[in-house]
Amino acid sequence: MKGKIKFAPEYYHRSRQTLEFALSSLDAYKPWRELDPGPNFPVDARYAALPVLTKADIRRHFPRGFVPPDRDIDRGLESGEISFVQTSGSSDSVRVTNIWYQKWWDAAEEASWGLNAHTAVLSHGDVPEAILANARNVGFISDDVDLPLEKRRLSRFLYLNEKTDPSRWSAALMERMLDELGTFRPVILEANPSLLARLCRYAVASGRKDVYQPAVIIFTYEYPSVLHLRQIRRIFRVPMASSYGSTETGYVFMQCEAGRFHQNSRFCRVDMQPLKEEHGGPALARLLVTTFDNPWYYILRFDVGDLVRVESTMHCPCGRRDGVILSAVEGRFTNATLDCRGRLVTLRELDEAMGTIEEIDEYRLEQTSADRYVIHLVSEQKNSRALSRKVQDRLRGVYGRDADITIAYADGLAPEDSGKYSLARTLFPLRIEDYLAAGGGTVEDRASSA
Ligand SMILES: [Zn+2]
Questions:
Q1: 263 CA from centroid of ligand 1 (Å)
Q2: Measured in angstroms, how far is the CA atom of residue 182 from the centroid of ligand 1?
Q3: Which of 76-90, 136-150, 179-193, 246-260 has the lowest average pLDDT?
Q4: DSSP track, 157-186
Q5: Which DSSP state fits 331?
Q6: Can the peptide bond before residue 282 be classed as cis, meaning omega within 30 degrees of 0?
Q7: 236 CA distance to ligand 1 middle (Å)
Q8: Of the four listed, 242, 257, 427, 437, which is most buried by Cβ atoms within 10 Å?
Q9: Distance from C-alpha of 401 to C-alpha of 10, rounded to nearest angstrom
Q10: Mean pLDDT across the stretch 400-426?
Q11: CA dist 317 to 2, 118, 256, Å?
């Protein structure tokens, strides 16, 4: 028997209110009005009839198109109540400016903490937190000069890294980061998994055994690769969870202590558009997010750019029942590739295959044509025949016997301009529309047919 998604009655109330207000009062959604079948239809069907909000749409209508007419944007900016923040542009996405309303952001984060047993017990707002991220994404940038600890503090946070290219971290800098964990003693370590993995590889190689252990590690910013998690676990023996969201949408899903992802349904609505069956649908779907109760910024059906796997039973061993449950986040669509027959391969599928190879530190796969793949590898066993054969085997398992695979060993892999690591991509364009199942449908349909 398949599970049914459970929502609090307020969820439908918020969904309806948000939809009706946006369609009637906000310029960005004006063109959507005529597509709304109207109040006589169930709210899920009304959402399903509407288009998808893209980053290009946000650019086109920013900021006025997303802010209620009675709100004074200039005054909000002047008083500091809101600010404009830019998301990092990358080779595959448009650079976007968003409205940042800290109060709403904090409230959404606090609610998301309730979805994991290890964060639920923490008092939000005053626990010391260390952040290991690319300075391009968050914190303070200083590439030439190393900043002392006091210059990297902000309220309860300590930013461990001020550099924009972590592949150039020196041993001294990584020693400093490990030392600062011990002196600052954060309860939470929030980290970009690829960066924390790099720090952990250093700690292992230099024989550091005394690394301070926070209460919990939260992964944000990028897809946590199996390789990176394994490297991190060599140093940290504490609970770890992925927090899933974006600058546009806030905190959307939180990974619980049982490893599944629970919707932060007090602060957002999610709609799933299933992929075609031959590409992994309907369990595999594109994620669209609508935010609730952000008085400064109305975001409806925003395409975050990720593929997710819906938990078809809608049950989790942790016992939480409210909202959509995902068994996995499968990675960004821009990190999807195709097998030799044209079937979509998500980053997760590739990563699980690569994750079985212990000897690899880092990888990046580029698909250059329908059946040609180049994989860049960082490994202590550089140019080893046995390793190359293993990699060929695993990749043929994913992409097919006829896959033409080139292996290129490297000393290190630099992040993209966005500050994030790309694990895989095609060098030719892919359009998500070509992989989506025909017809709309609702989250409920998806769950019961998954
Ligand atoms: Zn759970």
A1: 10
A2: 31
A3: 76-90
A4: EEE----S-GGG--HHHHHHHHHHHHHH--
A5: E
A6: yes
A7: 22
A8: 242
A9: 51
A10: 86
A11: 16, 15, 10
CA distance 328 to 351: 13
Average of per-residue pLDDT across 31-56: 96
442 has a pLDDT exceeding 50: no
Mean pLDDT of 369-382: 94
pLDDT (0 to 100) of residue 91: 44
In a domain, 95, yes or no: yes
For residue 338, how far is its CA from the centre of ligand 1 (angstroms)? 31
Measured in angstroms, how far is the CA atom of residue 425 from the centroid of ligand 1?
31
Please report which confidence band the pLDDT of residue 413 belongs to, taking 50, 70 and 90 as the band edges. confident
The alpha carbon of 116 and the centre of ligand 1 are apart by a number of angstroms equal to: 8
CA of 259 to the centre of ligand 1 (A): 7
Average pLDDT over residues 129-146: 90
Band of the pLDDT at 89, cuts 50, 70, 90? low
Distance from Cα 320 to the centre of ligand 1, integer Å: 6
- How would you label 176-208 residue by residue, b for 16+ Cβ within 10 Å and e otherwise? bbbebbeebebbbbbbbbbbbbbbbbbbeeeeb
Q: Which helix (H) or strand (E) holds 111?
A: helix 102-113
Q: How many domains are contained in the chain?
A: 2
**pTM reported for the whole predicted model:** 0.93
Regarding whether 300 and 207 lie in a shared domain, the answer is yes
**How far is ligand 1, taken at its centre, from the CA of residue 316, in Å?**
5
Report the C-alpha gap between 347 and 224 in whole angstroms. 10
Determine the distance separating the centroid of ligand 1 and the alpha carbon of 449, expressed in angstroms.
21
Strand intervals (E) in 90-213: 97-100, 129-132, 153-154, 157-159, 188-191
Domain encompassing residue 418? 338-429
pLDDT at 125: 82
- We report the CATH number of the domain holding residue 308 as 3.40.50.12780
Residues with C-beta atoms within 5 A of ion ligand 1 = 256, 258, 260, 316, 318, 320
| Residue 2 in domain | no
* CA 179 to centroid of ligand 1, rounded, Å: 34
CA of 302 to the centre of ligand 1 (A): 25
Same domain, 168 and 90: yes
Residue 152 CA to its chain's centroid (Å): 24
